[in-house]
Design a protein that fits this description.
five-stranded antiparallel beta sheet; 3 helices; 344 residues; Beta-galactosidase, Chain A, domain 5; mainly beta
Length: 344
Amino acid sequence: MTKKLFGKTPEGVEVYLYTIENGNGMKAEIINYGGTVVSLYVPDRDGRLTDVVLGCDNLENYNNSPYFGAIIGRHANRIENAVFELNGREYRLAKNDGNNHLHGGIKGFDKVVWDVTGHSGNTLKLHYLSRDGEEGYPGNLDVTVTYTITDDNGLHIDYKAQADADTMVNLTNHSYFNLSGHSAGDILKHQLKINADKFTVNNEECIPTGEIISVEGTPLDFRDFKPVEPGLMSDNIHIKCGNGYDHNFVLNISGEEPGFAAELFDPASQRRMKVYTTKPGVQFYSGNYLTDQIIGKGGVRYNKWSGLCLETQFFPNAMKHKHFPSPVLKAGELYHHVTIYKFE
């Protein structure tokens, strides 16, 4: 259990790097700015530890990063035209992704300093109070996120939230994984399996249209393991809309307990990562907009497809499509979801 100064915000607030680990050597380094997973060291088949998430060495670079490892909120993913209606009232949000709202706005949960309310050998507990009207969202929202490294080499993320007024909540973690190592190049040879028979169709702005269709016969059919590369290189309309994979998959799980969502395998290192969640969807994003302008850990320049994300979530744009699972949190009710990234 360690803690060290990572940097200061422009306002002079100190940000710390916290280490949590298990007895097998697996460890995570997390800063309380954005609740960001900076590093995640996991063993390969020979027990060698490698950092398998993209990240930065300093706070300044995180201000310009594409959400590396951060907690995303209040609402992960996109909201069409940056507007939603709740209880007959219209709420307007920041347009920070073209004409749309993305990942909580201009200053979402990824760009705030969280309070540390617990830190032990294998656990870090973070707290943030999002005030009524922050980024346009209604209600005061009290949020707790707990990271735990378990003895079976799992990174457990436990999300809890309560509000004093009806609001909308959809929390996730935006880690970019490369199981060969954060500086190893691209993830094209990684093999992926997703426990989903269907996905939500996107328009040209990566916004779900409301249509849910079968993965059968499309590059989004990951019901059995297959490499990421062939689909990325296809001229399929669904791939073209996202400039690669940037799609929400409808998971075949109940949501009552963490169910199997996806599995990622790297033939080079033989590392395997299984994802379990209580959320109804997972966004597979293949790092299509990463560029060498992003300076990563150790001065590494991350390029397109240097890492991929498996973001567990409510479906994007769900307030517009009432047949999607609802991200509405009623006043006084408990929002509680769990996601597990387990390494083998």
